[in-house]
Write a structure and sequence with these properties.
The complex is a heterodimer of chains A (149) and B (115). Chain A has a single domain, classed as Heat Shock Protein 90, CATH 3.30.565. Chain A is built from three helices and five strands; from the N terminus they run βααββαββ. Chain A has helices at residues 31-44, 49-67, 112-122; strands at 18-25, 74-82, 86-95, 125-131, 134-142. Chain A has a five-stranded antiparallel beta sheet, with helices on one face. In chain A, strand 2 (74-82) and strand 3 (86-95) form a beta hairpin. Chain B has one domain (7-114): STAS domain (Transcription Regulator spoIIAA, 2-Layer Sandwich). Helix content of chain B is 38%, strand content 32%. Chain B is built from four helices and five strands. Chain B has a five-stranded mixed beta sheet, sandwiched between helices. The longest helix of chain B has 16 residues, at 61-76. Chain B is globular and about 30 Å long. The N and C termini of chain B lie far apart (31 Å). The chains are: A alpha+beta (149), B alpha/beta (115). Chains A and B meet through helix 1, helix 2 and helix 3 of A and helix 1, helix 2 and helix 3 of B.
Chain lengths: 149, 115
């Protein structure tokens, strides 16, 4: 992935305090690793309990957004970055060139509307597009007033 | 049968009504087992069932999709799929998706069975 792939619309995390990159096989049984990482990052960024839980769910939905429709054996690349008042996450699904078994993400297909409702409710901004032929989704969550732990 | 240590479904009978007691995290990895259990009930001719989510710590849209499919199936047969939700985090997911208007949600399995 080029550095440009990680720049998302309305990118406002200009003075990031830190960033974490995660790369893992796009398999359903590994989604819990995303939730664990999201919780750790949000905690590190000093977000409150409710927002940590919100981010865990939002990350799950973000992963379903990029891996759900055309998933073949491939990898999910995640970039978390944060400032004093916001966390931004970008997820990119990179399909394998050929071969490999297809993960069974078909169960996610009928729930796209539910997924969108969840993201609308939990994060401040989110979106999805395609960069360099790879599905990409992103979200941005700002610290709520009184949101420190 | 799932091998996920953070998920389990067991079935008990409450006065003739099957109650699926779900524990742990229900996501794209574990929701298929819940779907299979609900399908099995329908294939047995059950039209009324309860899914107890009291011990569930996480649900995502795939879990909700499985429950929506289940309630549609049972209602089309003249029955219902009732839910037990006690955790605020889980209640919140039903509220933000508007599914509190779809499901009959109770605070205990006993209440759900009697309703």
């Amino acid at each position: 992935m080029s550095d440009a792939s990680w720049v998302v619309p309305g990118d406002q995390v200009l003075h990031e305090r830190d960033r974490v990159e995660l790369s893992l096989p796009a398999r359903p049984e590994l989604l819990f690793l995303l939730r664990m990482t999201a919780a750790a990052v949000a905690s590190r960024a000093d977000f409150g309990y409710d927002q940590i839980e919100d981010l865990r769910l939002a990350i799950d939905e973000l992963a379903l957004t990029v891996c759900g429709d055309e998933a073949s054996a491939g990898r999910l690349q995640l970039l978390f970055k944060w400032t004093d008042d916001a966390i931004e996450v970008v997820g990119i699904y990179e399909p394998e060139d050929s071969g490999g078994s297809r993960p069974d993400l078909s169960i996610a297909q009928p729930v796209n509307e539910l997924s969108a409702r969840i993201l609308d409710a939990l994060v401040d901004e989110h979106g999805a597009d395609v960069v360099s032929g790879c599905p990409r989704a992103w979200l941005r969550m700002r610290r709520r007033k009184g949101g420190h732990r | 049968m799932t091998t996920d240590v953070n998920f389990d479904v067991s079935e008990i009978d409450r006065g003739g009504t099957p109650v699926l007691e779900v524990r742990g995290e229900v996501d794209v990895s574990t929701a298929p087992e819940l779907r299979e259990r609900l399908l099995a009930l329908a294939e047995q001719g059950r039209t009324l069932a309860v899914v107890d989510l009291s011990d569930v710590s996480f649900v995502d849209s795939t879990a909700l999709g499985v429950l929506v499919s289940g309630v549609k199936r049972l209602r089309s047969a003249g029955g219902d799929l009732r839910l037990v939700v006690t955790q605020p985090r889980i209640s919140k997911v039903f509220e933000i998706t508007g599914l509190t208007d779809v499901f009959h949600i109770y605070k205990s399995a006993a209440e759900a069975v009697k309703a």
